[in-house]
Queue: 4 jobs
Job 1
Amino acid sequence: MPIEILMPALSPTMESGNLAKWLVKEGDSVAPGDVIAEIETDKATMEVEAVDEGTVGKIVVGEGTNDVPVNQLIALLLEEGEDESALEGAGENAAPKKDAKPEKAEAAKTDDKPAQKSDEKKTEAKKPAAADAEAGPAPTTGDGDRIFSSPLARRIAKQNDLDLSAIKGSGPHGRIVQRDVEEALEKGTAAAKPDKAEAAAPAAAPAKGMGADAIRAMFEEGSYETVPHDSMRKVIARRLTESKTTIPHFYLTVDCRIDALLALRKQLNDAAPVTDDKPAYKISVNDMVIKALALSLKAVPDANVTWTEDAMLKHKSADVGVAVAIPGGLITPVVRRADEKTLSIISNEMKDFAKRARDRRLKPEEYQGGATAVSNLGMFGIKDFSAVINPPHATILAVGAGEQRPVVVDGTIEVATIMSATLSTDHRAVDGALGAELMAAFKRYIENPMGMLV
């Protein structure tokens, strides 16, 4: 029987992807590890490797197809000894047409049960373990039959104590996906899990803003242009809404004098080795902020944490995410063990991250994880602001522009270069006093930057 190649879940938040390019054609032989396709997610373009050996018998989803749901059949692989006759009937009605809209994936359903048996052989790229770890194992009905659902759908259902068996799936072969659970929450059609039905309170529908039609009605027809949301903007909107509605934000601001930091930065850059008229590094203020925050987390380890419902995760290394603006949104690559790296290494690493982020070539492991992040809008002239925490981080540091301001030193007014920085904290994990201790450490490193070179 042909092996099914499915649209892989390349990150815990991925619900669908664009099949950008096939790197194989029908009739080609592939082996495990061969790159067979390029998939565009909301964050990056990823290469997909074959897991099994065989011959490409049929490409079901053509390259250039957008919004292909996770676990959708995209190709069939013939095993040794099989010929094209084995493809008869395989994969029919399993994939949306090229450029089909996401909602048309419902045409792939035949009934509420999966069309393939669970023991049939399938192949797809390895999924990040974090997706299933947060969502829990695949649930079953009272009769022991598996309920087919995405990890994100299971996680949302688990958080709201919903019975997945009461929800009708709209994904491929009746698979329950995120939108099905959210619709059930809004309509109140999904009951609490049977074993908790008596104790569980009815799930409250999430607060919603004005509908699209109501908003459009407020503006004269023809006075605006409609620009559909792309997948990145949808993910950003969902995650920021989740952050502000589920994480109790608390804010702490300090003003840091950065004259000594600017002088040290100039001294380090002037001393950079030069090869072919190109310096080996060029350190930015943001690079020094990353280092200072990482060292501060090591100095205040109780703030280097992640909140979960059953425990606090206290991290052993200081991994700092950095918000990078890209067309259509932003992404947050993570500088691992930033406290242990030199400023020149952090600088070159960030330049590489920024370039590959704009080219959508970052790997999932490069933008997932970390306990904190830096968002710097100082280069745009922003004096100060408060950033939204990026789950599962416990903090995020918003950095404003360095500007000359009058300050009082020993009773005398003088001019100094001041930079405002605001820490947003998840108050469940980092309360006011702990956050203040972290910001005090950050201010010490920024105002005494030689400490970052020790």
Job 2
Amino acid sequence: MTPDQRNVREYGIENDDSLDTEAIQTALDDCAGEGGEVYIPPGTYRSAPLRVGDDTTLRVANGAELRFVGDFREFPTVESRWEGWDQDGFHPCLYVADAANVTVTGEGVIDGGGSYWWDFVGTPESEFPEGLQERLAEIRSGHRQDEVSTFTVRPPLLQIDGCENVTVSGVTLRNSPFWNTHVVYSEDVTIHDVSIRNPPDAPNGDGIDIDSSRFVRVSDTHIDAGDDAICLKSGKDEEGRAVGRPTENVVVTNCTVEHGHGGVVVGSETAGDVRHVTVTNCTFTDTDRGIRIKSKRGRGGTVEDLRFDTIVMRRVACPFVLNGYYQTDIDSDPKPVDEATPNVRNVNFHHITAEEVESAAFLAGLPEQRFEGISFTDVDIDATRPFDATDLSPAMAAGYEQRHGIFCKSLGSVSFRDVRVTVPDGTPLTVEESSSVLLEGFEAMTEKEDETDAAPVVEAGGVDRLRVAGCTAPSDGGPFVRLRDGDASSVLLGGNYGPMADAVVSAADAER
């Protein structure tokens, strides 16, 4: 043990059933005043929530397990941000707040004891343990609730709040009561070589939530989550816009995701903006969605300058989701654009493979705010998995009939360069009410039962400009592009293979 290392066993830990909170917290407080390392040696430790201060390293040794107690009475009330709003909630299990130069490391396990808290979800409050209903009423007094606000029943496992220069490495973080790891109002945060594990059915069991924070790096981390695996947020609605703190300059690299509602997700809390994000060299397996951007009217904020590169997805219901209609109906009239109108622009997908998926992509902006600068380059999607493999809708947007191919609506500009899509039936690409669409080297394969009545490769309606280059006209003489309305003057052809001009038809021509 080094001179600045404090072994928690030297602070009076007893080998009995009593909680070890006082010993561990005293060691942490000593370090917060002087700097150094708190060492948790091999063994099992039970604790109420803990707080880590400045200049402290918390090292959980290989063979050590820090378990947080399942008893709401041990969790005081603190104010932080919860699901996009600044308000009260239960003290996080491990809380790093208003601190600098902190490290949580080791090869041990930090367990949130989530099952105790998960049982409260869906349970009538009249059946809660004595005192919990009154406690919740106190916490909720004067604060907002909406249909997804379940935070007040459960604390996160690790929350990094208002901090600078924090590193989390090596440890296993599992069984979080609520979100597993929440980085909020912080900067210069590194999460490296961490294992995050929540059961697939853990309610709100997000892996890592990066919330109004900047200069965050997530690398070489494995996540098995009960909700979104890695999620980027920046506040909700009017309050989030007033706070105005973006999530920006984020890198996610060399990560593996197993289960979860999404591999990497942005939103739905986008009010303070999310920008300058790079995700590279990752795999997503058995997640509901792959790369998912979600917002809706009322949120506001801009999501921009995102790049997703070198990613492999497998058994994902829908690998690409850009959804401006989260939990609302896509068939709606335009509304006035104001500060509450969300926007998405400059999102690039490059060198990505998606296998055994159900729906290739759902990309839908708003009629009053078309999403701009969406590009796909060197992307291969095999969307031949049956719809009933998961019974999931592609994007949690009402008024949309699920299909295997790519669906685009209300986009300012979208491009598909060297993109390959395989579907069992139907149209591989549908574009509606969009400004500019570029297809360059776009390939599609469809298992057609009736070659004389083949679906088109592309169906377009309300598209101002459609450019087709480097594509091959169907060898059977079927349509490559079918226009639902208007004539072919909106289509620019160049450098294609085969009689492409003959393969561009209107819906009226197709019916004759």
Job 3
Amino acid sequence: MNPGDRVRVERGGVTNEGVLLPSTTRDHLVVKLDGGYNVGIDREEADVEVLESGVREVDPAADDGGGDAASEITFDEDLPTVSLISTGGTIASTVDYRTGAVTAQFDAEDVLRAVPELAGRANYRGRVVANILSENMEPSIWRDLADAVAEEIEAGADGVVVMHGTDTMQYSASALSFMLDSPVPVVFTGSQRSADRPSSDNVMNAVCAVEAAKADHAETLVCMHASPSDDACALHRGTRVRKNHTSRRDAFETVGAAPLGLIDYEAAAEAGAEGDAADAAIEWHREPTARGSAEQSVDLAPDLAPDVELVKFTPGMDPAAWDYLDEKDGVVIEGTGLGHVHTDLIPRIEALVEGGTVVAMTSQCLAGRVCDRVYDTGRDLLDAGVVEAGDTLPGTAKVKLMWALANTSDPAEAMGRDLAGELTEESRPWR
């Protein structure tokens, strides 16, 4: 039997039929079922029958991460240059058929091979900053990522696409929003479902992200499915986006408003085929930051104060649970409603502030702003030295405080004003 043969595999009383694929290990068979999913089967214990030979042409080098074929990247002087920076995640993942789990294995050039629809849209440079699942993301990698993006822009990239796992993408997009003042687009994208699944969103997200990176703006964005259908990707500002569903393809939302823009997939695909920027495919809901001139350099401020915690208040919690916050550089609290905690915690917070910790208040509510001037508890919190973070999202507020502590002379004051589109100064619709 050879890759491309249609086979029937029996093991442990279970029968599977499909097309045999190349395997990343000698111990396992990989069969693509008729429904589109791949299944891994222990070779030693399987009974295999070849039903039909050569029903599908399969390139052994183009397997799920085990091949040695090099990505072929051609240069066209008429095309813009887009840097693809990989940090790992599902968009650059394959299935480990030993465990059945998804693991990050591809580098940036492998993504070009895995998503042939990217060919002809731009000249590409590939770079790997990390090869991790996003739950393992750390502030030190944000610094490495910011340095890499700045270097790519200084080297002439017309746009940057960061391939990232979805679980912590909103934090990394926030971090780069504060750390970089870029003259070109920086677009984060990922995939909720791996490439071996028939419902994978990797191709559409990658294509839309590349076209968004070529377009006429200089935003730091998250580009992901706008709906369960393959019709458009939403372009979310990096400091206002949140992953609001564990598994849906349209898991990401701009909190408090529509996304900054939408990019039509069909129009983006057609524009890419001509090599043009996909500005016509983008519908901006608000005016984006303008793209800078070719001579404009990137402004990089990558320093972070990592000793910052984000804590959530819940009714009935033990005040001793916050003892570990002593001597932290900063604390962001997710309070209830307008920004409240139990009154018994206020002395604890006051002691933190007196010890030099910047304490900022956000809300657990998905929309609206903190206002600690309405109720007695809020006024007591202000008297204790708490800083209102307005309608900054809690995760964004943590990243912002890390950046503000390292880069501003008055981080408490900085938490109360807009630095990168994360905060509306007044109660009005998003700009």
Job 4
Amino acid sequence: MHRRHPEVDPQLLSETDEQRQLRTVLRDLYAEASGVEEVRKHLATPRGYDEALWARLAGEIGVHGLAVPEEYGGSGFTFAELAVALEESGRALYCAPLLPTVVLAAHALLLSGDRTACERYLPRIADGTLTATVAGFGPGGPGRPGGPDRSRGLAVTAEQGGDGWVLRGRADFVLDGAGADLLLVRAGTPAGPRIFACEPAPDTCRRTPRRVLDETRRQALVEFMGAPATAVGTAEEAEGTVSATLDIGRAALAAEQVGGSGHALDGTVAFVAQRHQFGRPIGSFQAVKHRLADVLVALEAARSGSAYATACAAIASPQLPVAACAAAVVCSETFRLATAEYVQLHGGIGFTWEHPAHLYVRRARGAEVLFGTADQHRTRLAGLVGLASRPAA
């Protein structure tokens, strides 16, 4: 059971000067190079994102290595700085695989404690030359909470042969599964679940893109047919690594959702201020004011929840599972509300596919189930704080 009262220094919830500067630089860069039209254009490319911008983020600003220790080629900052970058990427609807590569895969490697794997892969993640993701970290997808014992019935298994480990089975709806250079796979072994690093080859790993609602976040079915793999970490630490990685992923997704909600609110406020009806701005009508006020209140709650989860992830607090679940609930619901009003209060134009609101609606709907639904998070949260007999996952 987790303590109900937070044990995080309140100063960690405030933005530092460095973080504000990073936010300004990233917002300007995204405004220049990753507008909605650029996003739409790059969705039609084989990789689905602007690879030149990906290289700029890694090389000029160092986003990919913000939370990577200096010994592995990173900047040695914390998750707090990375969360700023994720919030701004969510605001701009940046469609590159930051979440699977820089958050999930990088933190899975760090949490595994496997120095050899970290030295091999983290420098290339930090400099932007390697994309990576995780597979099989949760039943039915990358992190959806399962039953009380998630180690049973794994869809991917590992066998040890004369030349080392090979993987068999399938993992569905893997983030960036069709394009990632490295897959970190949770697979069953006779000694229990372990994490394996697999550099997929076409003859042993078939990857089929899935058609998903949110085209800015690609997913795929990955089928392993004797794919060579290398064990990462120990069997004893594997489940703890998976659980912690997913909670960090939830905190990261919450930061993205806050950024997207902020964009939706700002865009709607700007529109209702300049759109006139009956000789006055529609934003001056009481009903419109109330709806926007509801979004603002929800957004402030989401910012608080995200800031707490970010602080817990930055200092590896034992409160992270509680904070991550709470942030997942409040940020998902806020993003859904903000994007709904984004469409509704734009009137007829908001319902057209050409308007950017639809891309944000799709991102909101996809994100709210990415690491489990709000109801699943509430159930888990109840167990963590002692309101239920045991955590759900």
